[in-house]
Specification:
The structure holds two protein chains of two kinds. Helices cover 38% and strands 10% of the residues of chain A. Chain A is α/β, with parallel strands linked by helices. Chain A has three domains: 54 residues, Alpha-Beta Plaits (2-Layer Sandwich), CATH 3.30.70; 281 residues, no CATH class; 68 residues, 3-methyladenine DNA Glycosylase II, Chain A, domain 3 (Orthogonal Bundle), CATH 1.10.15. By secondary structure, chain B is α+β, with helices and mostly antiparallel strands. Chain B has one domain: Histidine kinase-like ATPase, C-terminal domain (Heat Shock Protein 90, 2-Layer Sandwich). Chain B has a five-stranded antiparallel sheet, covered by helices on one side. Chain B is globular and about 40 Å long. In chain B, helix 1 packs antiparallel against helix 2 and helix 2 runs antiparallel to helix 5. Classes of the chains: A alpha/beta, B alpha+beta. Chain A: InterPro entries: 4Fe-4S_dom, 4Fe4S_Fe-S-bd, 4Fe4S_Fe_S_CS, 4Fe4S_Ferredoxin_RnfB, Fe_hydrogenase, Fe_hydrogenase_lsu_C.
């Protein structure tokens, strides 16, 4: 797969240019041009809203095929906690993991393993006091990108601990290097992903958080392996005791799971991209100054609502919660506090690069010219009907006005403006027809 | 070249209040203002907007952007503040029950505006209303 900036893409053959996705894009990244819904790469945050909403399944996410694992000598699957929400609780976690392994992997390690460590390290990170309040979770890459693009003022608030996915990959790689003869390049680590945003993180090292030691070799969509795994559940070599996650750790799959690790703080967890936007707006203007930790997840219900999952998000959430209750009584390998603290202190959990704003492009680099353009936009907007119908291919009248001023659209893209022009023209035609021509005959 | 944007805020308009601040933020982003300054204007503007909704009989917010500065003027037609010194004290508030129930009225509004603006001026006369002028240097 090419290294790409985005996982969400358009299947041109399926797109009818129907404008459904236009208004549902939280960053206004889509325009219909030439009858197809094009995505503006610099604005897309990979939240997957368009994938969910498209009535023609024309919006897709680029992920890796299972066959890619054959490029490696030692194959490791690292399933997201949301995977457990896809199966009835009558199937034990060991059985689900064994079925995944039976797809052709040599080993399966839950990302919940890394989630437990990251979750417990949160309190150390919180008390490091380098952050403005509130500390904002970095768990959801779509929300992190949303902050970079739409709330650049809040990028300093974003937690700089690596995601459970990256940490899990790192710890697996480290162990294999130390305990086996495999070289780094022989080891293929594959994330079983519930969403497009994580797939982007895996496939774009330029914008991702990890370095070569926690390299992930591919992202495989839950929905692509679901039917094979289901088939193998009752028909695989059951390996008892391969799961090593706590109920708290796999509860990261649902909204509020991560916040549980900071439950003595004032935490706020919000799911669904529009809800996340509303709350970030309140945080931004200083309204929620009592909040100490903010967990925002782009999908409704949390990762169980990812656009690459199969089970309904509410049902999946119920399965996760049921599992958490069932497991409470059983013994689980708990990681010692020293172990977590040691990992934290090595610095390997921290993202090296700062999370920087990706400010939306201003109308012009020169403020005077930008002001001039802003005035033109407002003048144009006042002439448009204000219906935000989307027929022009932009999500609303304001967006069309902006596109016109920045040279990406024209006024008659608006069908109402076009109709007025036709009316003017027909009136003129009519007038001209009435004019008596010197040599012409008058009709009776 | 300068740019102006005006908003009216009605008394008791808690549900839609915040709309002006959001619009101001988006406008400033499009004009290429740095995010640090936008944050300060957003916080001050939001406080001003809330003050209009909670304490005033209604008023206006005027945003002016020029090459070197942003000016935010918040003006109402009453009732006016009897003791400005007290009103500028952190924690002091005359917010009503309804506003407090909605989480407002912590008495941080004016001090917060003062803190975020590079220049802060307030004039108030009982019966005439209040005018706040804030400048943010670019």
């Amino acid at each position: 797969m090419d290294k790409l900036l985005h996982s969400v893409y358009l299947d041109e053959a399926k797109c009818l240019g129907c404008t459904t996705c236009l208004k549902n894009c939280p960053t206004g990244a889509i325009r219909v041009r030439g009858g197809k819904a094009r995505i503006n790469e610099s604005k897309c945050i990979d939240c997957g809203e368009c994938i969910r909403i498209c009535p023609h399944q024309a919006k897709l996410a680029k992920t890796d095929p299972l066959s890619k694992i054959n490029d490696y000598k030692y194959k490791v699957a690292i399933p997201a906690p949301a995977v457990l929400g896809q199966f009835k609780t009558s199937y034990s976690i060991d059985r689900i993991l064994s079925a995944i392994k039976a797809l052709g992997f040599d080993e399966v390690v839950e990302v919940a393993y890394g989630a437990e460590i990251v979750g417990r390290a949160l309190k150390y990170e919180y008390h490091a006091k380098r952050y403005p309040k509130p500390l904002i979770s970095s768990a959801c890459p779509a929300v992190v990108k949303l902050i970079q693009v739409r709330f650049p003022e809040l990028t300093d608030n974003v937690c700089r601990l690596k995601s459970p996915m990256a940490l899990t990959a790192r710890l697996v790689r480290k162990r294999l290097r130390e305990q086996t003869d495999y070289q780094n390049k022989d080891i293929g680590i594959f994330f079983i992903t519930p969403c497009a945003a994580k797939a982007t993180m895996v496939n774009n090292p330029l914008i991702s958080e990890y370095d070569q030691y926690d390299h992930i070799d591919g992202a495989i969509a839950i929905k692509d392996i679901f039917s094979d795994v289901s088939g193998l559940l009752n028909d695989c070599n059951l390996q008892e005791g391969i799961h090593n996650s706590t109920p708290e750790a796999f509860s990261w799959a649902v909204s509020g799971g991560e916040s549980e690790y900071l439950k003595n703080k004032n935490v706020l967890h919000v799911d669904g991209i529009q809800n996340v936007i509303s709350v970030l707006e309140e945080i931004e203007c200083g309204k929620l100054d009592g909040i100490e930790f903010f967990e925002g997840l782009a999908c409704i219900g949390g990762c169980v609502g990812g656009c690459l999952t199969v089970e309904n998000n509410y049902v999946a959430k119920m399965y996760i919660q049921e599992r958490a209750k069932q497991i409470k009584q059983e013994s689980i390998i708990h990681l010692s506090e020293e172990y977590v603290k040691n990992i934290y202190n090595t610095g390997m959990m921290h993202i090296k690069e700062r999370i920087l704003p990706r400010n939306p492009e201003p109308l012009d680099a020169d403020i005077n010219k930008a002001i001039e353009k802003m005035k033109q936009i407002e003048m144009l907007e006042s002439k448009l009907p204000g219906l935000d119908c989307g027929s022009c291919g932009a999500p609303g009248c304001r967006a069309l006005a902006e596109d016109i001023v920045t040279g990406k659209a024209k006024e008659i893209d608006c069908i109402f403006v076009l109709k007025d022009r036709i009316l003017e023209l027909s009136q003129l035609t009519n007038e001209l027809l009435q004019v008596e021509h010197p040599t012409g005959k008058t009709s009776e | 070249m300068s740019y102006e944007l005006a908003f009216e805020v009605e008394r008791g308009d808690f549900e839609t209040a915040g709309g002006a601040s959001r619009k101001i933020k988006k406008t400033l982003q499009q004009l290429g203002i740095s995010s640090k300054i936008i944050r300060k204007v957003s916080i001050a503007g939001y406080e001003g907007e809330m003050n209009l909704a909670i304490h005033s009989w209604g008023g206006t917010i005027l945003l002016e952007v020029a090459e070197t500065e942003i000016i935010l003027t918040i003006q109402d037609s009453g009732p006016g503040i009897p003791d400005l010194h007290l009103a500028m004290t952190e924690g002091w508030s005359t917010a009503g029950v309804e506003a407090r129930r909605m989480g407002f009225g912590a008495g941080m509004g004016l001090p917060n505006m003062d803190r975020n603006a590079d220049h802060f001026e307030i004039e108030s006369k009982v019966g005439n209303g209040t005018k706040i002028l804030m400048k943010f240097f670019l």
